[in-house]
Structure formats: structure tokens, C-alpha cells
Amino acid sequence: MTKTLTATIALLGLAATPLLAEVMVEDTDGNGSYSMEELAVAYPDLTEALFLEIDADASGEVTKEELTAAVDAGVIAQDS
Fold it and tell me: Three-state DSSP class for 33?
């Protein structure tokens, strides 16, 4: 029973990890993506070069999916 509970808690923790990226950044203009300015509030060390790297589709905005992918890949630290 204890092993099952421990495994379940561990899996839930791993499943929740991508959601943390979304929570840390506020979409102040409500457009569903993040500007350089919005990301810089949560990630003060963010450079323009890093922003461009995270913006995989070169749209000028970072989507939730792009941010999650960057965090998962270690491109940007979640606790910056």
C-alpha cells in the first residue's frame, strides 16, 4: 500500500511539473501568449537572444507550449 501511494504521489508530481511554467508567468494583456516584457517579470535574467530561442515559431510571442518546452528542455530555469 505504501509503495503504491508513494508511486502515485511521485507520478502526480511529475505530471504537474509542466503546469508550473504557466503559473509563474502572468499574461497581462490576456492574448494567450507571453511577450518579452511579461516573461521578464518572471525571469529577470531573460535576454532577447534567449527569448528568440524560446519563441520557436518566431511569432514575437511565446506560447504556453513554447514556454513549457523551454522549461522541460532546461533552456530556461523554472525557478529563475
Answer: strand
